[in-house]
Amino acid sequence: MKRYHKASCLLALTLLVSAAVLFAQNGVIVIGTIIHSNNVPAVNVYVSIAGVGRYTDIQGRYRLDGVPLGRQEMRVEDPRQPGHVLLQKPVDVSGPMARIDQTLPQ
For the domain 27-103, what is the CATH code? Predict the structure, then answer.
C-alpha cells in the first residue's frame, strides 16, 4: 500500500510540474475592458502588456494571449496620436487567465 501511495504522489508531482512548465511557456491570457472616465468604451485604442498588444473592439474589450507571469507594465495608447500614452501602469499577471479592466484618466 505504501508503494502505491508513493507512486501516486510522484505521478501527481510530475503532472503538477509539467503543467507549471507548460503554463510558463505559453503565458497568461489577459482579458479586460478599457473605458473613459465618463464610462464610454475606449474604442480602437492599443493595449499592451509586456510587449504583447492588441486593439480594443467597439465595446472597449481586448484579449492578449501569451502574456508573461508576474509584475508587468501595461500601456494604453491612442493610435491616432503616435506616441501618445493614455495610461501606463504596473499590473500583476497571474493564473491561466487574468482580467484587467482600466479606466482612462481625464
Answer: 2.60.40.1120
Per-residue pLDDT of the chain (106 residues; tens, 9 = 90+): 556 556 565 555 555 544 444 444 579 999 999 999 999 999 999 999 999 999 999 999 999 999 999 999 999 999 999 889 999 999 999 999 999 999 999 8
- List CB contacts of 62: < 8 A, sequence separation 6 or more: 31, 32, 33, 34, 47, 54, 55, 56
Q: Can you tell me whether residue 39 is helix, strand or coil? A: coil
Task: Sketch the domain layout of the chain as residue ranges.
Answer: 27-103
**HSE-up (13 A, CA, CB side) for residue 65:** 1
